[in-house]
Predict the structure.
Amino acid sequence: MSAQPLNFVPASEFKQRAAVAVADEHLRKSFRGAMDFLINKRAAQFPDPEALEGQRSLAEHIRKYSLARLPDLLEQLERKLTANGVKVHWAENAHEACAIIIGIAQRHSTRLMVKGKSMVSEEVELNHAMADVGIEALESDMGEYIVQLDGEKPSHIIMPAIHKTKEQIARLFAAKVPGASYTDSVDELIGIGRAVLREKFMTAEVGMSGVNFAVAETGTLCLVENEGNGRMCTTVPDVHIAITGIEKVVEKLEHVPPLFGLLTRSATGQAITTYFNMISGPRQPGEKDGPREVHLVLVDNGRTQAYSDQQMRATLQCIRCGACMNHCPVYTRIGGHAYGTTYPGPIGEIISPHMMGLAATHVLPTASTLCGACGEVCPVRIPIPELLVRLRGEAQHEARPGHPPMVGQGAARSRLVDAIWSGWMALYTRPKLYRAFGWLATRLRVLTPPMQGGWTVSRTPMKPAAKTLHELMAARKRGR
Amino acid sequence: MDQAGSRQYPDKPTKVYLFGTCLIDLFCPEAGIDAVQLLEREGIEVHFPADQTCCGQPAHSSGFPEQTRAVALAQLRLFPEPWPVIVPSGSCAGMMRQHYPEVFADDPGLQAEATALAERIFELSEFLVHVARVKLADRGAPTRIALHTSCAARREMGTHLHARSLLAQLPGVEVAMHEHESECCGFGGTFSLKHPAISSAMAGDKVDALQETGAQKFVSADCGCMLSLNHTLQKRGEGFQGQHLASFLWQRTGGEGGQR
Amino acid sequence: MSARDNILRRLRAAPQGQTPLPPDVGAFHAALAAAAPVGTRASRIELFCEKMTFWHGEVVRVTRNNWPQKLRELCAARGIRSLLYGAQGEHARALEAAGIDGLKPYDRPVDEWKKELFEDTDAGLTSTRGGIAETGTLIIWPDAAEPRLLSLVPPIHFALLDGDRLYDTLFQAISEQQWSDGMPTNALLVSGPSKTADIQVTLAYGAHGPKELIVLLLVNEEEQA
């Protein structure tokens, strides 16, 4: 099997895509509208800021505790699941994860695999790998189905097709779904998707899903969804394969409700989703439905790198609610596709460098004003701005003694940038030189260059004042 | 990170330091002077250490911790007396109050000094409200303004509340809310240079929202955001401009005689 | 070295700070409960009905005596031609005595009649293990008698819920029913019919599963009005 090359995000490409996206009035308007909608729905769920802080503290505690005990909990999860009849697999990277899943599918002579929503399967580029061996991997979440039908990738982790209007979807269905005629009624469009996909649920040999929480004490995989396609994928086909990152495990069942409650409220402003599906094993003798085989694939793919650093470990607290992107002013302007990674927005900026290396991703942590909106809404209190700053530093420096190395460390380093900051430091650590510079800059203000790089794209040039505050204060002192 | 409102405030002092910030020093010194005048009018003596340069935030947010540390170290001992240090910028105040201790995490002695300094850092409007406890007398004609607070001010210093409470003391000043008021203006320091397309889009949306309020001007306690928005407006040929909060308050209250 | 060993080795080699104390979710809920007014059966029923209705589910109050008749009326009113049920379920006998047209027992492995299940079954009836008032949620534990797909594939889902088995919160249900002692192969929380907002954030019901959820809430005679 040829492993699909993972995405690479050269700085120039990100900037180019971002520039195209911000110039797209239609895209800007639809993202702004959708994000405002989600922001307001979330806010309505948390009327009492103090109560919210209490819930965040508990959720953060649960995640930190679970991560602190991660290797033990993974082993406990494996023991319990195995005892329940679930086969547990481990994958160090995307290639291994795909190979495991393809192996299972091929053993069952699978031609069609139906998939519930799983960002980890996107992360490991499973659909491409399956296509390479002639197995159709069909997305069944409505949003995912729509973007797959159009040959695209999700632009949001919770709302995959948020960048599309119903008219675009209407045209897409009319063109690509056999027998479908044009309709822009949302109910009718959903009806078309329903009819196509129910047929597929019935015939697929293998169903796939992600996992929102894996409970170690009972060996239970929890799935959160509204549509019911996740239940279909995990119940109708003979084989169910679940895939998840190793960080999703919690110790006890009672640790789930606080996380679940914050996940749905933060994501879409719902107090609960339609379905919460808890799977603890395959069909037992006497049972009339459910898969005969259940597999769990535990994926590392860079997570142990984040885990190895005590500060960056907080990245793994994420429960994938997407609130950080909903509230991100940059994401709102450029949408999910511009990032070029599976996980867009602030969480993508801090997790992608571990999955893909800093060489491929060092531009992403710079795509933030550090405004702090993401950290403020994160239900498990990941200090996203601090981690962005940290990653900017890792991209500019070689590994330092006492710190675990990162893949692609120092990738953004350049002599020019180093020289600029050395010069900056020389100026701002020498008060006399600094004052002389200020004096000179103000006296030469008429010579201010009219083009000042990115600044003057939409702004007039910066021009020093006639005198610096230092001079004015010195004059006041003399006059006193 | 301390939440806005949880800070214990000292009594009004007779002397303070001013940390002017590098942007104000070079680009809007009048805001620094107006801040000094506001403080002096309250009977507070303002000391301006001549060796101050920059808080180090640009290097910090760009991922250059050594350069940050060196520049921060050059500021650390400029304020030897136990007086409050007033910073007329939310983001620089946030850097010195919230981040200085971690900048010196490698040296317990310096870290203790940084922590002690951080305790004395006050953003200007925060100081005027909670420490100087100013009573402003409005001398201007009725006007309608908008307010833009920097994100650092909002999330690290709670400054949006302080600016609002100062403006609320002025009966002739109506402060209009604008769309997406809590959203970032797109400045973000070096972000505006590295990602001009995104930064421009954000700045454009912000000036649209500010202008849509029908306000006569906007006020900000942060020089960086203000410059970014003003230069955006100038490029568009708009007469609508922003003014530093210190200057607005000083002018509005009639300068020297404006107290009480 | 296997992938498993490598992953676990890297995790164990990572610097460990202090492990936080185990989170006390019980204490958190106890503090919340202490601050809130004490829930009564009536308030739980009220809240459950309000929330379930919000999720687009319908709640019909019934009694132990009249529910099969009520169900028959509901089926007739909707023109339901086939109602799937668990033949070994706890309510099977009462149901069979009600004279409902098109009663269809789920009595064979799904593999033998998948097409009929998907294409020619109008409604399904399940029991429930309880409900959650706070969120308007049904707790369903499918088993050999009442299989998993009973509550998923037919376009209309009827669920019998005993008013005595309403819990304030999910946490309360988990701890009082002692779920951690042993989970079934599949357990479900269901709050309303299947839905999606994936097209232009417009809500649409019946995405893949039931288009309608009708809860038959078993209450006392005097609570029925």
